[in-house]
Amino acid sequence: MDLPALLGASLEDSGVSHPVTAVLLNFRSYDTLLEIGVLVIAGIAGISLASTPSLEDPELRSSDALLHALLRWFVPLMLMLAAYLLWAGSYRPGGAFQAGAVLAGTGVLMRLGGLPMDFIRPKLLLRGGLVLGFAVFLLVAVTGAVSGSAFLAYPEHAAGALIFTIEIGLTLSIGMILLALFVAAPVSEGSEPEEGDES
Amino acid sequence: MSVHLLYALAGVFLCGIGLAGFVALRHLLRQLLAFNVVGSGCFLILVGLAQHHRGPDPVPQALVLTGIVVSIAATALAIVLIRRYFHLTGRTSLDGGPAAGGQTAGPSGNTAE
């Protein structure tokens, strides 16, 4: 039996009805676990290399009136789109990564428009958000291993709910990591005094 | 020749362009872009070749989805590193030469920074 036929035959056991989501979060969830690990490492490295201490520079804000007017429409719409993509991932194309990308785009738009974003400061909340998805994923995986079955094996009756829980955590974390990486590369001129001295 | 094979061949073509750019260009941002073109070509090959008689194969699609996210994170991290490098040294390439561009082609060899 070749691989796609095998996947189709065991799709009912996966807890979701879309094959790509089933592969990502059930049959090959090792890949996804390591992927979010890579993302967390990249995010932490990006934040630690950030040259602005506050990550919230008022000089970087745009004062475009059109952008401000659009933001009031776009931000709720994009948040709703992200929630829909997350929810739809279990039975049609969509899922945590697309939703996280939309969340990050919303954050970039909010930052460029100058909306206050306290959670992006390098404090406990940002760190917690960065590792949330990885932590939830790892917790589920270890719980499966401790309770007698294999590492990353979900109990059959709760597979769908567990996958959705993991996807919520992944979405928040991916959005925050991508946003943090954007924020960590400021678009200002090279005006940081401690670096200008060395060059 | 099926249309999926065409996708895969386009991916091979993209890989070639990206590799040539990665070797030929010296500006770090251009090299990063060329590297991303190579990555996109690889994804296109994977998705294009992985077809079977009942439609697309979900396993390589899921792997490509994983790869896209990782490549975005790697690209963002590389941009952060390149900006840091530029701020610290004033150079935009890894050569020993002076600032900005070296032998990159095109009229806008320097960045707008």
From TrEMBL, chain B:
Principal localisation: membrane
This protein's GO CC annotations: plasma membrane
Keywords per UniProt: Cell membrane, Membrane, Transmembrane, Transmembrane helix
Domain of life: Bacteria
Transmembrane segments: 6-25, 32-50, 62-82
Subcellular location: Cell membrane
Pfam families the UniProt entry points to: Oxidored_q2
Residues covered by region (Disordered): 91-113
Nucleotidyltransferase is among the record's keywords: no
Lipid bilayer topology: Multi-pass membrane protein
Family note: Belongs to the CPA3 antiporters (TC 2.A.63) subunit C family.
Name of the protein this chain belongs to: Na+/H+ antiporter subunit C
